[in-house]
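pipeline: protein-struct stage 2 | run 1193 | WD40 repeat domain-containing protein
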Amino acid sequence: MKYVLPTGLLAISLLLRPEIGWSQKVKSVAFSYLPERPEDRYNERIPQKTLVLASGGFLILAHKSATEYAVERYDADLKRLWSTALPLTAEQTVDGFASSATQATVVIYQKTGAAQSLSAQTIELGSGQKAPLKKLTETGARDRRPGLAFSPDGSKIVAWRYLTRETQIKSISASIYDEKLTKLKDRSYDFSDQGALFSTTVHIGNDGTQYVTLVSEEMKKLAVRRYRNDTKDIKVMSVAVGGVFGGKVVNVFDARFRLLPDNTLYAAAICNERESGLYHSLKVVKFDFSAEGDMKFAPEFKFSPEYLAEVNKANGSAAKRLEDVYLTDLLITEDKQLVVAAEKKYEDGGEDSPGHTRELHLFGYNEFQSPTWHSIIGKDQVAPATEGYSSIGYRAAVFGPEVQVVTWEKLKNKSDLYLRRLNVQTGVVSEPKGLGLNVATDQNPSYVKDFTSWLDAKTLVGVSRPSKKSAALMLNKIVVK
């Protein structure tokens, strides 16, 4: 392992040798699951199907059959406390899953020949009793698919539909609800001032305030508009991240936003050269809407030839350029240190080709938005097209000054879940530790990343299949000593 402390702005980890000589405890129970068939394999609508509860234990959204989901509550010892069935018709799919202090909420999308709609069903955490399905928004069958977002604490929902002219978004019509699905506000977000090329989505705070994020001005600017329920005033903050540099047009290739419970919003963007597609830089912005509002723009990180050499060294490759690297996480510690994560994701070509995920790109920023380090985790994961990216990639969680990263890999001829620890202050990454599940490797579902979560810093839950001889998936609790 080679690294330089933060003043050198560099920390590279070559993580090919699993660490041994440690102990853990694994408890498992049988688990029933039908693999998903997402329309977009890159962007699952519900990538996290295990939700940890502050009151203890966790919830699972389980796909039981082609016509039924179920929300199930387990205690910390994997005892199932209740299971509530959610029957679906052929026209329905699950589009959202969240929990608050008192209930779980499942959002169901339905498309018929006449309309598209989003409806929500709430389930009491104590009893598992479900309330009647309630429609949140509806639009025409030929319109863009409606969208939704939950607040960080799951107590508010915003559901919206797009109003378009031909293919251009002209406005969004949104409805805001509390956790009991009582409507708080109808709101319209107007984009008549935007050009022909922009993208937008809606976020909602725990207090019901909406934050409409935009990549605008020909994909060169990041902007946020704040809409409060008690006033018509709109607050706007924006910053240019693209433009013309060295005679070359640079614009946003990929962007990710994250809204925190205190209504601070972080944004990251990978920018590339429009003509060549070459990766240019990573830009990070913090939008703080407290008081008069403040925006902090971090110094850009350039994707230089030297950085490409580091990537090739970490992954043992000889790529001529960065390709297929997408933003995947904005991880923030309690003292507001930020880790931006990106991952290489691609397919061999064609609808039925395998999916691949390779190296993780990690970029650290201190509480003042100054870049302090970058690290690269080398890995090489492959999954059949039927699984999409639900088994490969990674899961990450923040605990104090540390980020834990879990992957399913085959290292030193051993297929297992591996845990790495990232020091957020230095960027140093530990060697991978096998969690002792001995995950099967064949063409049947072996590991479902969507169910991996942390009950605390030393306790994980996840779903995997222990051997080729077994056809059954198991729900596991892993305690790391």
